[in-house]
Every structure is written in C-alpha cells, then in structure tokens.
Amino acid sequence: MYMLTLLYGFTGTSLLLIDKVTGKRVCATIEYMAPYITAEAKFLFNVGGKVIFRQVETHRDYRTTMYSNLFKVSEENPKPKTMVWQIVKGRKNLPETMCRRLRRRPPVAHGTIKVGAHKDDAISTMHSAKLPLSKPGCIIGMYLLLRLPNTGRIVSCARIRKVVPKTAAVAFFHDGVKGRIGFNQRSEYDITDVHVSLTNLRSIASGYHVHEWPVPLKFGADENICGPSKVSGHYNPFDVDIKNSPPAGKGTEDQYELGDLSGKYGKLDNSNNFVKSFTDNNLPLFGIYSIIGRSVVIHRKDGSRWICSTIVPEGTLIRTVATFKSPVIGRIVMMQDAGDRFADTQVYVELNYANGITTSTSYHAWHVHVNEICSDFNGKSCACSSAGGHFNPYNVELQGDYKSQCNPRNPLRCELGDQSGKNGRLSIRSQNGDFSRFFFTDEHLQLTGNFGVIGKSVVIHAANSGSARLACANLVLTPKRTLIVNQWYNMTSARVRGFSRFTGDVEKHQEEQAFVKIRLQNLDRQADGFHVHEFPVDPTSNFPPCSPKAVGGHFNPFDVNIKQSPPAGTGTHDQYEVGDLSGKYGKLLTGKNFVEVSGLDNFLPVRGQLSIAGRSIVIHKSDSSRWVCGNIVESIMTSRALLMEARAMFTSGPVRGYIHLAQYRYPNGRLSDTSIVVNLNPAPGVPKSSCHNWHVHVTPVKPDGDVMNGCLSAGPHYNPFHVNVKEGYDECKFENPWRCELGDSSGKHGCYDIGGGKRFYTDVNLPLRGKYGVIGRSFVIHVANKGAARYVCANIRGRSFLQMHSKISVYKIFSKFVKSGFIFLYSYEAEFIQSLVSKVKGYLASYFNFTYRYIDDVLSINNPKFTDYLSSIYPSELEVKETTETNNSASYLDVMLSYDTGGHMNTLLYDKRDDFNSSITNFPFLSSNIPSSPAYGVFISQLIRYARASTKYTDFVLRAGRLSDKHLSQGYVCDRLTSSLRKFYGR
C-alpha cells in the first residue's frame, strides 16, 4: 500500500494507474484521512441521476465537493443541455413532480451544470466552500433546482438528503455457536468496517462467505436450510474466478469473490473463539451490490455447510408481500427502511407453478402496476387486466432509447415499476422442480410516500419476454404481529397475573424470530419451567384446563431429544424444543414472585405453518406438575383485528366431534393464518381408524350430514385457484401448501386418525370469509388408510359479525350528572369483567373486546354473548333495549356501520334527520350577523367530517353533494364553495 500526500486542490479527484504491459487500470479517490459527511440529491422527474455532496466532517470550513451525473429521462430523442442550478429552501415532503412551487424561493447558492442525453454523458465535479453540510448554513434539507438558462423555467428538483451510515449484522445462535459479524459503512464512497466475534466454534469452522439469498424458514428436522437450493452459492456479482484468487488472506479484496470473507480476511480454522476487525473496500452496504438481506454461511473444514444466518440491517424496516396463488405460486417480498422512502429496497422472489407445468420457464418480464386487483374483501376483478398499466409516476419516456438505457446499472432511467428493466427477468420453477429464487437490491423503488407501491399490484408476464399477463398479486403491507397470553387458567390454587407477549420480528427479515416480553406476578415462588404446548386451553372441556388431554405436550415440531439439550439457558435456541421457553431462556421463574424480562427468541414464529398463535403456554411448579396455563392469542389492542371463528360439528354417522377454525381480519382487509383444532372420535360401538384424508368441499351438505347418501351433496374439493391435481400434485405438502387445493387439508397437514386424539394445525391458505371463504361450505372426512370414499361430513358454520344495543335508560341522576353516570355504569361493567376472570371464565371476557359504550349508547361487535349476559352486567331497574334493525348494520353515535356480503365493514355518516325527513338546518345563513369566512369554513370542516366517516368514496360524494346543494340554497356563493372544495382536495 502506498500513501500519497497531495495538495489541497487535489482532494475530491481520483488517481488512475495503468499497467503498460497488460493495460489493466487501478484507480482511487483522493480524500482526507478523516470521516466525511455525505449528502445526495436524487433526481427522478424530467431529469434523472444524482448529485453527491462530500465534506470532511470535522472541518466545516473545508470545501464541499459536488459530483454530478445527470441525464434526460422524459424525452424521446434527448439532447445534452447546460442548465442553471440553484439551492433553495422548501417544505420537507414536496413531491418531485411539483417543483414549480419552489419558483419564487431566493437561492442560497447557484451555478451551471451539465445534463447529458444519457447516463455518464455529463459526469462533472465541482468544489465550493459555500455549501456546508453541517451547521450553520447547512444545505441538507434544502432543494437543488435545475432551471433552463434562458427562460428560467424549473425543469426538475431534488431534496438534498444526508446519507445516513448503514449498520448491519449477521447473528449466529446455532448449534452452540454464539456471536455476530457486524458491518458498518458511512456511504457508498467509504470503506466497510467488519467486526467478527464468534464463540464456541470448537475448531469445526473454516471458510465463511456471503451467499446470494437469505436463510429461509425451517420446516423439517432434517432440512438443511444452508444448502445450495436454500441460500444458493457465494455472492459473486463480478464473476471472479476463484482459481485465480490468491491464498486466503494474502491478496487485495478485489481479487476474491465479493462474498468470500475468509478469502479476504483468512479462515476460522482451529478456532474456538474468534474476535477480529477488518476493513473491506469491496463489501458494499449501499446500492445494487449490497450484501444486506443476503446470508453468511460458515463451512466446516471439509467444505460442507455448517451454520448460516441472514444479514440484517439496523433500524426498522417496512415490508410488503405479493402472494401468488394461480397459475404461479410463491411470493415477492420487498423491504425498505421505514424512515426513508429513497433508501435501497431489498427484493426477494420465490416462484413455482401450480398448474401442472413441470419444467422451468424463463425470461419473464415483471412490473409493478398501477391498480390493486381483487382480494378477499374488495370485490374487484381478479383478472390481471384490472391491474392497469405499469406504474410510471415520473412519466419516464418509453420510446426512443428506453430499452437500451433502462438496465440494472441505470435504474433511474426506468419506470419506477419496471422491475425486469431494473433487476432482470425472472424464471419460474428451478430445474430440479423447486421454487426459483432471486434476490435484488433496488435503488429506485419506493414502498411508501406519494409514489409508494404498497397497495398496487405486481404482474408477471409470459415467458421469453412475452407481453401476455401470466399472473398477478397485490402488494400488501405486512404488519408487525403481536401475540399475547394475559388470561390464566388454574390447575390448582394460584394468583398468577401478568402477561407473556410475542412480537413477530418481520421488519428484520427473519420470519422465525420473535421479540419476547414476560411480566408475571404473584408466582409465590412456586413456578419453575414454562413451555408452549400443542393445543389451546378449552375452558368448556371436561378435562382440567392445563392437563395433557386438554393442551397436549410441548410444541416440538423438530422432534428435539430433550435428553440431549444443554442445561437451561446455556445453549442456543435450536438445541431445545421450540416450545421449551425455560430451556431456551433459563429458569427465569424459579424461586421468584415477580418476573419482568425481555429478549429475542431465535425460533418462535408468530406466522406460518409452525406459528405458536392459537396454542397455549403452561407454567409448571417446581415438582414439574402443571400449574397454570393460558392461550396465545392476537393482541387486538395492537392490531385492531377482528376474530372470526367457525366450526364443523359431527353429530351423526360414525364420527363425533368437531373441527374448529379461527382467523383474524386486520383493518386493511388482510387475513391472518387460520388455526385449526381437530378433535374427532368414533361414535359408540365404532372402532378407531387411521389416516383419513379430509377436505373442504364446495357446497354445504344436507341437515342430517348426508351420511346415508355418502356425503355426495358436498360436491367436489374446494379448489377456487384451479390447482392442477393430475400432474405434479405430489408437490402438495406441508412445506408447499400453495401447491395444494385450498380445501385439501390432508395434503397440507397430513391425514387424521379418528380416535387418535386432538390435533392442531396452522393453515396459511384457508380464509374463513370473503371471496374465497370456507364458511358455508363443508368438511368431508374420507375413509381410512387414505381411501377415496366419503366417510362422514359436516357443514362449516360461522359466528354472526355484528350486534348493536343502544339507549340504556337510567334515573334522573344520569341526565343531571353525566360524569357520575359514567362512573355509575362503569362500576357495573368493571365488576362483571372481574367476576369472569375470578371465576376462570376469561375466555368469555375476550368476547367483550369490541364492546363499547358512550353515555347511554352501547355498540357490541362480534359478541354473541352480550344479550345472554345483559342481566348480569346491569341492574334490573335499568331498561336495556336492543335497537338493531338487522344483524349486518347498525348506527352508533353519528356513524352507520354495516357488513357487506364479503364480510367487509363499511362506515358512512349517520344523520337522524334523514330518517325523519327533517328540514332542520344547523348551518349559518350568510344573511346572519356572523362573518362570511367562518361560514365557508364550516363547509370544509363538514367535508373533513364526511371523509373521516365514509369508507366508500361514493358515500362521501353523495353526502358532499347534498351539503353543497344545501349551502347554495342558503345563499352561499358557488365560486367560493368551489374554491373551498379545491382547498379540501389540496389543489
């Protein structure tokens, strides 16, 4: 390494060395040996490209260097142009398409700049001592304007944003190995600092590398999630031939594969604990070659793969998923920093076929399109033609040189939604029949903001660059999911109170992790172990609530032998049963009366086939006996989700029992996974039988269960996505549920033994309500040993959605003292809920999660128990009268609530005067003595009120039209009303 000391004027330039023999070039930027502040102005509208600002962090008097690479994006035949640049102040979130709002701002600084016809045509460097990147006079947060030199017309603008340093890490907590590899990079123009800290390697480890894909969720005990089909090979985007690489640790970073960490830094051979730091000039955290979201694999000495984990960024991410169901199955996952819509977006793709195609197809174009297509509850067309055109909010020109200029190295020349142009085309299905997988870092894909893609759709086109639309799916926001246990049932006397909370760490890429918080009191120093158990507590059961018959054994999907697990709290989480919380975390409860702890569980999924949602937690005593238990349920206070439940009761024929289904619906219409409890036994005199296939069928059966008719009235299997069951259907399995018919429960979860005991499953593709809901259909159990004949059947019946009760009439004290009335009624309500808890009926209390009262009006949503318990809540001298007209609609305060046929709740403004055709006016006449401005202000305030109350735009428009007519009839001026309406719409 050589260090050159140059004059001040050379900083910000580069040095190029050329080998006279080979012609090989080596270059480096000349900068101070000090940390730099970096800022960026990214141009997206009319002009594309970036202007980068760099200044030494510790010396604000040092000059700032401007690097620019700007080019035309909105002209069919672009020509280079010299423009005037100005730096001006402006509001923070101004859309890039509305730059002209800045036209009257006085410039802080100005000059001229070249804009090329294409990228790299007009690269330039400028230096200025008047563009500080720190206070005072800091230009970060201001706007860089581009104007035409003659007319002064604003062509484009970009906000100057500080480039925030990126920190990422890969955490290892596998097979006894603990530690992490941390990565830090200040900007894409700085080196990456790497810190390795690993313990208990036991001289097993050798090479370690960044691999192409993130680590997937594990489904089977013997599954190798570090294998080539799961995380692919070494990350090598520059196609370095490893045969030409120097021995490990002897060369420069560019001589190795980008992801070959052990090649660059040396191997881990013969180490137990390894702690070292390195710097790397070829390991970016920014841009299309970023390692964030990929994985690191540690190999054994023989080269085989040992342990692996995903590289996770620091901070909070936002995540959206497009799930494909027909004819393509799979998902496209997009993740971006929640606080920066201009940050890089990581895109992970996994795709396969469900229509019987058994070969790989390639060169599929794919794009984000403008419109949302159908979903469970929106009633829109499911055809991919309803997705509209490509999402191109910046009006990028598509003629001329678009095809040659839009490419992965030039994403700002592409439509924002042109994923194949920015990242390359896709193949569907791998050569060995597995899912095809891809991972990209997209520099030009906003998930949120004015031009965010969440709520739009992704369309995959036909193979070989065909234009026909093959498959499509909506981009749906994935919310953080929180599960909680806060209702406890006792086996023996206990006073335990508190909660255990599990939050899915979806924003950190790894779906198997959960952040756990436990707060328990009144343990009386009796508690010891605590575990997730297989089944939920059923308070109506004849068995003790926490007994093996009620909740089963520990949740142990990977069949871990507990005799081989390390002592509690000393090993890594994969060395214990998934549900063995006290084994993983240590004996936190032992000898305690009060416990409050929190931390990360490396494998405790809150979503997916191995989710703990719907199961239970059991706390044991020090003698290992079961003491108290509680169900793991959705934290609806966090998600505002609605619980939907359904049950198929088998009451006739050779089988007795039930199949119970539970699912949550979130405010955005998204559905959770469905929890299934199956508990079927032979009827008296009928022997037990094994391995029955079971399915949801299309139609309900006759009231007697249609057993005598062979359950033929149930129709065929429910297969709304037309999954091909004749070719390749052996791919339908637990790990690949989207390849199954929606109703093929045995394909997704396995056959069922009647009389073999209760079973619990989590189904990721079994909606209860909506377009593809199974409520109103039927379950058919087929004959034993996977036979095809129909054995017994039952209809799937759901619970009603909405009830409304209002007008509690009380004594005169209520009308005189409103606050006292509140306390008066609250005392009865609180006493009622407390009595349910003390009587171990907490499951009933959960029905009242969506029961509300305001003075004398009560709203009860999805609560079939309210009417039954009215007499237990309020004293007999109070009259409680139900005023609901239908089961699907009700008015509460000033809002009308209703459920449509798809189960979607809609709201609109409710005005009692409409019911009585009253002409009472509560808006001011202009002829009154009040000034006119407040009167027109009333118009806007009412529009805001209507908008907040209406879920449908048509309801808002109707109400706004009536309001306008009313105001015009009262003498309001049409032009001023129109102006007010424009202000309301922000125009």
TrEMBL record:
InterPro entries: Cu-only_SOD (IPR053257), SOD-like_Cu/Zn_dom_sf (IPR036423), SOD_Cu_Zn_dom (IPR001424). Residues 1-23 form the signal peptide. Residues 177-302, 347-464, 504-623, 656-785 form the Superoxide dismutase copper/zinc binding domain. GO terms for molecular function: metal ion binding. Keywords: Signal. GO terms for biological process: superoxide metabolic process. It comes from the Eukaryota. This is Copper/zinc superoxide dismutase. It comes from Pinctada fucata (Akoya pearl oyster).
